[in-house]
Amino acid sequence: MKKIFKEHPLSGEQLIKTFEDYIPEISLKNKSLAIFTIGPVQSFISAAKKTKEYWAGSYLLSYLIWQALKHIMEESKEGENSIIYPYLKNQPLYKDLRNEEITLPTLPNRFLAILENNEAEQLLEECKKMVENKLLDIAINLFNISKEDKIYKQLEELLEIYWVLLPLEKSKKTEIERYRSLTGMEPANDISHYSLVTSIIEELMGARKNIREFNYIEEKGVKCYICGERTGFEPGIMNIEDEKKICGVCGLKRKFSDYLKTEFGIEIHYPSVIDIATADYKEELVSSLDKDELNQLLNYMDKEFGNQDYQMPELVNGLVGDVKSKSPEEKKVLKIKGTYFDIEGNELKESIKVKKLLKKINKKYNLKLNKYYALLYMDGDDMGKWVSGEKLKHREMTPEFHYLISKSLTNYSLKFVKRIVEGKGRRGKLVYSGGDDVVAFVNLKNLFEVLRELRGYFSGNVFDNQVNYKASDGIIREKGEDILTLGSKASVSMGICIAHYKEPLHFVIKNARAMEKKAKKHIISGNRKKNAFAIGLIKHSGETREAVSKWFYDDGEDIIEKGIKPLLNLIQKEHISQSFIYTLKNEMELLEGLEAGDILDDEIIRLMKRKITVDEDEEKEDSKRKKLQKQTEASLKVLQQIYKNRYWIEDNKEPNNIYNFINLLEIIFFIGKRGE
């Protein structure tokens, strides 16, 4: 190991102070660069009816890539120092933890390593076999099947495993010629030899994936009701409680937590979307009711549903704030499944007494059940440019810098993401956190705080534990530790889908991914900007709304902190009437084609001010109204940046800025009114 003092390697800026880090000394002599990937990813993960299946798909890929990584660590000459990406040392599977932390998927579906020429090919083939065998061993363990079973055959054909190897000793001139032949383009003049090789191997991997190995399996009979691709089997064959036929692949995801229970000794409880959506309601409920009222509610529930599974087996971490401070009665109420609070839902259809009691409680304490939740997809912007060295201003890309990029991404994934989504009483649940990729379910009450912190912590824009886009050295300081991030030049784009809990999960997943792509493809003044978030709202009625915004515009104002959150607060306190949206829409039809400017800005602010409502006595009403109008105007002036910057999605010729702005306002009102 080589001890080095360094500047921040990624932001291109001199740090106020240097700090120590340890990275392996990486020699390239007699070595080859290798990429190893496991697929399919999206089609495999997104085929899910339940949140637990969605999580299981992500975890299974992380668990399988770990088998390959472990083999490289144990059998290669350089051991774990061979692996450039991902950074392993703090990974839960690497540390062999035996607690809830190990149940979070944090490893990507690929790795990059530098291996000895004389061992590389054999090692990669062994990794491929180990991954394939581990998947089949899991199936045999869970389903007690043989190699002749059709379920086994389905799983045998599931994985798409590819690896590519490229010797590092060829001259830069030779690699430039190879790059030209592969891409038809010229490499950058100042590109380093290592950057050139990483670019070439990525091109080779893309070409390799295009050559699919196809083994035809005839899938007869009724198809699996989850994926719709493979033949479904009676669920009893796989010890699954269900009424519809399921294929071996989807059955494996549904039962995978049973395998992990045996492997790690940990019971895995993953909340449903309705439990995520209603988590804040249940917290408000237990804080409002006294002991007698709590017991009355529990007695009613027991009488109606005592013979049913109406409670979650455990309180899921992340959905409840401080569990230890809760009384036994409060814990029992918090464990009631969210569907049993939906007065209009199927569970309470015949339960007149419970419905009456809940209506009475809701009216007395002014409580409202939110039936909507958010699914977010986050992806780092321009990660290819980071790996190629294009983002390393005044520095030549080397394996050491590549290693530091990996470490920065792992720092973010392991030290911050779970805390942001599930900590601080946020009531969210992570699906996947693998460096520059995050997938999570979020309760709407905390949505914008989660989005903002995920963005700020990724680039290290944090000062005194608060997101601050002007804090730009890329080092987050916590409890005496300096934590490396990619730095202020890094950014992310996010796609968010807000949906009713009855919306099919696969459709919500598809929409969230589409929003993430829309955020990346948005264009301002002719330049693709990325560094944005896009929100799609799917109402239970079928209506949809979509809006895109940057995290901040040229004036540097934080859109969420200075624009969205203050407005949301006013809406939640019922100081702004929702009729503002309808009035604004009607006026915009009359003003269609009007360019953003002072007239339009002033008119929007005027309309909003007219919709301010004040619940005060006559003497205080005027001063309170003026104060609220001032707050509203400040918030709107920040949000108006959204339509002042000419925006459109790639391939669309005409921007529609004002309706993008109105859609965002509608979504903010929808969240503030808890799904109304």
UniProtKB/TrEMBL annotation:
Keyword Nucleotide-binding: yes
Gene Ontology BP, a term: defense response to virus
InterPro entries: Cas10-Cmr2_palm2, Cmr2_N, CRISPR-assoc_Cmr2_N, CRISPR-assoc_prot_Cmr2, GGDEF_dom, Rev_trsase/Diguanyl_cyclase
Superkingdom of origin organism: Bacteria
Gene Ontology MF, one: nucleotide binding
Record-annotated GGDEF domain positions: 371-535
Key word Nucleotide-binding present: yes
Keyword set, alphabetical order: Antiviral defense, Nucleotide-binding
NCBIfam families on file: cas_TM1794_Cmr2
Protein name per Swiss-Prot or TrEMBL: CRISPR-associated protein, Crm2 family
Organismal lineage: Bacteria, Bacillati, Bacillota, Clostridia, Halanaerobiales
